[in-house]
Design brief:
The protein is α/β, with parallel strands linked by helices and 285 residues long. It has a domain of 144 residues: 3-Layer(aba) Sandwich (Rossmann fold). 36% of the residues lie in helices and 19% in strands. It is built from 8 helices and 10 strands. The strands form 2 sheets. The protein has a 6-stranded mixed β-sheet, with helices on both faces. Strands 2-1-4-5 form a 4-stranded antiparallel β-sheet, covered by helices on one side. α2 crosses α3, α2 packs parallel to α4 and α3 packs across α4. The protein is globular. It comes from Aeoliella straminimaris. InterPro entries: AAA+_ATPase (IPR003593), ABC_transporter-like_ATP-bd (IPR003439), ABC_transporter-like_CS (IPR017871), ABC_transporter_ATP-bind (IPR050166), P-loop_NTPase (IPR027417). GO terms for molecular function: ATP binding; ATP hydrolysis activity.
């Protein structure tokens, strides 16, 4: 059994008569300490997948397992880094991390806790910004803070829900390198959601596309065998990188074309409705 596993999961929203099936028989297996990128188009259910793996949502059918145990609820063993940072605006950099540390390690003494928090602040290069509020930080700094807060809980599984999609290209590439560096130093099982093929190839051990919804599932897998560390300055000249990027892109575009053809083939009958015309006005009084 894989360390992180989605086992034949069905999930949908809404009442039975008008239900939207997000996933149907979706399965995924991630080995311990593996870095997997799930790539998909907007609306394919990527964030729903993270919520299912984190225990924030429960499958209608099937199960989610971590280390052989059924995921029944969220917990500190499953760390989520959200796209929108999810920081408390009234707490400083130090305070946002401290809140998480106190919840997970309530018996940690004050001096030990201070050094522990500083370690994670330094890890994401935020030394000197300990007492700044999130509103005083750039987007990249906020995302680094969100990552530090999640890592400070020492989760067994790190779930990254498109954490870099709102950043400019330069900050995005810097944070890609930062995440890879942290993962290589402190190995954790990582599942990252992205819609960027280059990002997936640069960062992951394996790429798993998510098919278009409704009733999406995990599609063909693409192993990334490029040696680490991966130098983005030379990757564009690497034939293996170019071939893999083109192969994944072609696969995703074919999924998109298939979804469009299915949409065109569906004819929805419209109800025979007639407008209600206003009656004659009646003067009162």
């Amino acid at each position: 059994m894989a360390y992180l596993e989605l086992d034949n999961v069905d999930f949908g929203f809404g009442p039975v008569s008008h239900r939207y099936e997000v996933f149907e028989r979706a399965s995924l297996a991630v080995e311990q300490n593996e870095f997997v990128a799930v790539i998909g188009f907007s609306g394919s259910g990527k964030s729903t997948l993270v919520s299912l793996l984190a225990g924030l949502l429960k499958p209608d059918r099937g199960q989610v397992h971590i280390n052989g145990k059924v995921v029944a609820a969220p917990g500190p063993d499953k760390g989520v880094v959200f796209q929108n940072y999810s920081l408390l605006p009234w707490l400083s950099v130090y305070g946002n991390i401290e809140l998480a540390v106190k919840q997970v390690f309530p018996s940690m003494k004050r001096g030990e806790r201070r050094d522990y928090i500083q370690h994670y602040i330094d890890m994401v290069s935020l030394r000197g910004s300990e007492w700044k509020l999130p509103g005083e930080l750039s987007g990249g700094m906020r995302q680094r803070l969100s990552l530090a807060r999640t890592l400070s809980m020492k989760p067994e599984v790190l779930l990254l829900d498109e954490p870099l999609s709102a950043l400019d290209a330069l900050t995005r590439s810097q944070l890609q390198d930062e995440i890879i560096r942290i993962w290589e130093e402190d190995r954790r099982t990582v599942l990252m959601i992205t819609n960027d093929v280059d990002e997936a190839v640069i960062m992951a051990d394996r790429i798993v596309p998510l098919t278009m919804g409704p009733a999406a599932h995990l599609g063909r897998e693409f192993p990334v065998t490029l040696p680490r560390p991966r130098d983005r300055a030379t990757l564009n000249f690497n034939p293996e990188f170019k071939e893999l990027r083109n192969e994944v892109t072609r696969y995703m575009m074919n999924l998109n074309e298939e979804a469009k053809s299915l949409t065109r083939s569906v004819t929805l009958p419209l109800p025979d409705l007639q407008p209600v015309l206003p009656g004659p006005r009646v003067r009162v009084g």
